[in-house]
Amino acid sequence: MSEKIDLRSMLPEELPALLKEHGIEAYRAKQIVSWLEKGARSFEEMTNLSKAHREKLSDLFEISNMKEADRLVSKIDGTRKYLFTLPDGEYVESVLLSYKHGYSVCLSTQVGCKMGCRFCASTKAGFCRNLSAGEILLQMVEITRDMRKEDESFRIGHVVLMGIGEPLDNYDNVLRFLKLCNHPNLFGIGYRNISLSTCGLIPQIRRLMQEDIPLTLSISLHASNAELRSELMPVNRTYPMEELLRTCKEYTKHTGRRISFEYAVIAGVNDTPARAKELIGLLGGWMNHLNLIPVNPTKETSFRPSDKKSMEAFVKTLEKGSLSVTVRRTLGTDIEAACGQLRREKQILTKE
Ligand code: SAH
Fold first, then answer.
1. Contact, 181 vs 159, CB < 8 A?
2. Which of 82, 182, 271, 318 would suit a FRET pair with 18, their CA atoms being 20 to 30 Å apart?
């Protein structure tokens, strides 16, 4: 990446001073933000600025961009999965999901992932780099641009950071992204409509707790005891489940926000009655929610989702234990909407 400051990563209120520092009138900031909000890809497009100004701006700054490399649209439910190419040739994936209450986007926060969860396709392709705040936002800009070709009133209602990468492993950029995404002059998405999912990086969860940002925190739990969790998620060896759950309780107490636990249900691995009882022991008696996701089979593992009967029995036991449980509807199964799979595919194709 170039050394120039990416204006997409700047908060609108930071722009005036930055422009002034370089001899450009502060009031130009408003014009620039409005162009960025509209999806401008270059300074040349900003036609209400003089040519001299546009040239000066492109000498001093940059506007990050990426190109759509592939787009898959589900025939079943309209889910759209985008594969974007970054200027350094790397790929990220983003998914647009359509619900009764509006559109939701699932964004990537890193190119690849270091966390090594065994069931996850994102990690198989290795870690390459963090995305900047502007690059995370750019996924929303590009999806909006694409959708507005068909529907001028298109608006993103919800944002979930559940694409490729571990958001809390890219803390500063993700925090900046949250502020950009929430900013009234950009997307104006309320923090309550933003979900951040983490595999459980305890120090960063503690930091987030102090930020006073009322987003929805999701924790990828996926196991009901420490031994199984360490097997499925190596991060558990660094940040053990017991301490993670203690931190979660503190988070809930401090923020008043209910945490959502993600649990990918894997046939014969974590879906037995004994596992359900362990889960009741962990999550019973305090404010939280358990979201069961039938595991999405990936090419590298033999993990399969539970059959209907086992899933129903699992849910029933959990409900009897008074847990608040839902089973996530899987969208876009015909287009491999689980993140990481498309990037991985592309990598395999490029290598062969
Ligand atoms: N790194 C973050 C967010 C990325 S993944 C995290 O770990 O939470 C978003 C969610 O999808 C996580 O809960 C992750 O564990 C889950 N996931 C990954 N691979 C999956 C698969 N094959 N089937 C079902 N869920 C999966």
1. yes
2. 182
| Ligand 1 nearest atom to the CA of residue 222, by list position | 15
**CB 198 less than 6 A from any atom of ligand 1:** yes
Active site residues: 93, 339
pLDDT of 70-124, one tens digit each?
999 998 888 999 999 999 999 999 999 998 889 999 999 999 999 999 999 888 8
Task: List pLDDT tens digits, range 19-36.
Answer: 999 999 999 999 999 999
The strand order across the sheet containing 80-85 reads 67-73, 80-85, 91-99, 102-106, 156-161, 194-198, 216-220, 259-265, 288-294, 325-327
> Rounded to 5 degrees, what are φ and ψ at 246?
-60, -45
Q: Hey, whose CA ends up nearest to atom 5 of ligand 1?
A: 162
Residues 225-247 as b/e (b if ≥16 CB within 10 A, e otherwise) read eeebbbebbbbbeebbbeebbeb
Q: How far apart are CA 39 and CA 143, in angstroms?
A: 10
C-alpha span between 203 and 239 (Å, rounded): 9
Q: What are phi and psi of 80, to 5 degrees?
A: -115, 130
- What's the CA gap between 244 and 247, in Å, rounded? 5
Q: Give the whole-angstrom CA distance, residue 197 versus residue 176.
A: 16
* Dihedral over Cα of 249, 338, 176, 113: its sign: positive
Q: Residue 45 has which token pair?
A: 């497009």
| Residue bearing the CA closest to ligand 1, atom 10 | 162
pTM for the whole structure: 0.94
